Amino acid sequence: MDIQTLTFIIVGLTFALYIAIAIWSRAGSTNDFYVASGGVHPVMNGMATAADWMSAASFISMAGIIAFAGYDGSVYLMGWTGGYVLLALCLAPYLRKFGKFTVPDFIGDRYYSQTARTIAVICAILISFTYIAGQMRGVGVVFSRFLEVEIATGVFIGAVIVFFYTVLGGMKGITYTQVAQYCVLAFAYLVPAIFISMYMTGHILPQTGFGATIAEGVAGEGNYLLQRLDGLSEELGLAAYTEGVRNKIDVFAITCALMVGTAGLPHVIVRFFTVPKVHDARRSAGWALLFISVVYLTAPSIAAFAKVNLINTVNGPELTGVKYEQAPDWIKNWQKTNLIQWEDKNNDGRMFYSGDERNEMTVDRDIMVLANPEIADLPAWVVALVAAGGVAAALSTSAGLLLVISTSVSHDLLKRTFAPNITDRQELKWARIAAAAAVALSTWFGINPPGFVAQVVAFAFGLAAASFFPAIIMGIFYKRMNSTGAIAGMVVGIVFTLAYIIYFKFVNPAANVEANWLFGISPEGIGTLGMLINFVVAYVVHKLTGDAPQDTQDLVESIRYPKGAGGAVSH
């Protein structure tokens, strides 16, 4: 059976499973729709959180960017992992104790201000749309190759599926769907990694194969895998794989932005409101970190295997270039999607990949994980399984983001601000309408994304770092912070960060080089500076306008020293 047929079967079966779960767990109230009635078991919630967290950027793009950027690509691995630890230890239990549905809900009540709530809603929607653009792009990349459709068509298919189970099931349906999606994506990530590790190094564990010697019969046999990669990279005019070319300030800034951005992501934070008790929030965070590590600890090895296999396949063992007529089918199949391009510069009929003027191959980094099984000539069912995993990763996060958008509109804007007297049924209706509108807009962003998947997601993290993180941290650990300071900090932080990203990515992309960056910080890392500006502005304005009211300070004390479970309640 060919790859396309198997892909249709496996992806179709997973879609049927997701839809069946959504029907089985259909939300019947806003409490079901927003937080699954707060009744999810910590282990299940940990698995769902892991799926929510491991988006298309983690599954499709992270190993790809590490494969191409080497050491510099590790900032994504370090930042996202460290950020989740920060979220689990410093934020999750306190937010769960506060007992609100959403991040804007927390900010609006903590800072006793509808203006703060509205600004938080705007930030949440902006962050979520930026993030979801990367997820929809990931769906399009998967479908464009394995279902042999245009990227735009693939985005439409994914949008329809995620719309169905998000609108129907809400958080309750999403939670149990994400449990299934985690199982699919983790299995799909590990199986090819184990196959390739055994072939290239003889090690069944990819993590140990990553540091092992190359097996007999494979090009470069006897050399350590990373040593071989360094040698190949330098010979082909690329930076040594294990050495970075980014300046250290930018490496620190990107890592920090990803870390603190993680702790401010609304679609991840809301997952801690779905468990029964504060203690369960801590437990589910620990389980989620365990489930996340299964994929994240495998990503560097997949990246190294993919890069070596790519060079060996395109340039050949002697690095002279393989004749295009003799190229494996996977290159020609990916060419149809325009995600691989070949230009025969010297008219010798041979392909050549390098980092200098000899280069004839343009390879989209988002295809590396998806193409890896084909590059390694693994069985067709493994290739189809990886396609299903990529779709699961993208859809699971898209669902969480769409829920954030819908609840921000229906609960935070309508119920808590503009129409406080609407019924539970009306609020649920508006939540579904908002989700439908969000799907339509996110589909457009998926077709016209502002960069590759991991880069687009990095922008979302930067915006979260510059807006939500300081407001949440000070809201929990600095009881005297007032609403005026928090509002000023959020506005200045997100405006500065967004303006910086828009200027270098859209207004003047030709200027997007280190010499023009502020303090040598790239658009991917500018959220760190935006965060610092937020903290400074908030503190200065607070000092000029006075402390928060005493009842608010007492409320913060009760959050930091919890004595009860605290239930998520509707207002």
Automatic annotation (TrEMBL):
Membrane topology: Multi-pass membrane protein
UniProt cross-references to Pfam families, sorted A to Z: SSF (PF00474)
Chief location: membrane
TM region(s), chain numbering: 6-24, 53-71, 77-95, 116-134, 146-167, 179-200, 251-273, 285-306, 380-409, 430-447, 453-478, 485-506, 518-541
Organism domain of life: Bacteria
InterPro entries per the UniProt record, alphabetical: Na/Glc_symporter_sf (IPR038377), Na/solute_symporter (IPR001734), Na/solute_symporter_CS (IPR018212), Na/solute_symporter_VC_2705 (IPR019899), Sodium:Solute_Symporter (IPR050277)
MF terms in GO: symporter activity
Keywords, sorted A to Z: Cell membrane, Ion transport, Membrane, Sodium, Sodium transport, Symport, Transmembrane, Transmembrane helix, Transport
One Gene Ontology cellular component: plasma membrane
Localization of this protein: Membrane
GO biological process: carboxylic acid transport; sodium ion transport
Assigned protein family: Belongs to the sodium:solute symporter (SSF) (TC 2.A.21) family.
Protein name according to UniProt: Cation acetate symporter
